[in-house]
Design goal:
63% helix
Length: 137
Amino acid sequence: MNKCVKRKQESHNVPDKLELEFSFITGRTDGFCELYLNEAYADLCCQLTIMLCRKQPSPLVQGRDSTWACAIVHAFCVVNDLFNPALTPHVSASLIANYFALSFKTMQAKSKQIRDLLDIAPQDPAGVFLSITDKNQ
């Protein structure tokens, strides 16, 4: 069981009806972060997933979980400038799309939907992304 799922069970932040989606999505985002980023980024992708689960209505009830996992990682990387090769770690958008076997266009569209829905932007000083953004400056 991944750490994010354990944290969710302790805090009860995810609605019961979205537990399966949450578990699958965070399993996929954790896998990507383990290979290409780090545990801190995995935790923050988890927090982003929790935010989407708690949104009323949650967008995660429609569409494929693997699509949402890809879009969550992409949105997180956009907000935290993780496509910048001067940063360590960093990734490319094509790496994300290939890892999740999703088209680049679909990944970008869903990522934008997430960023618009949660009103987050690159280098946004507010919210859950601040701790990672500060480390990259």
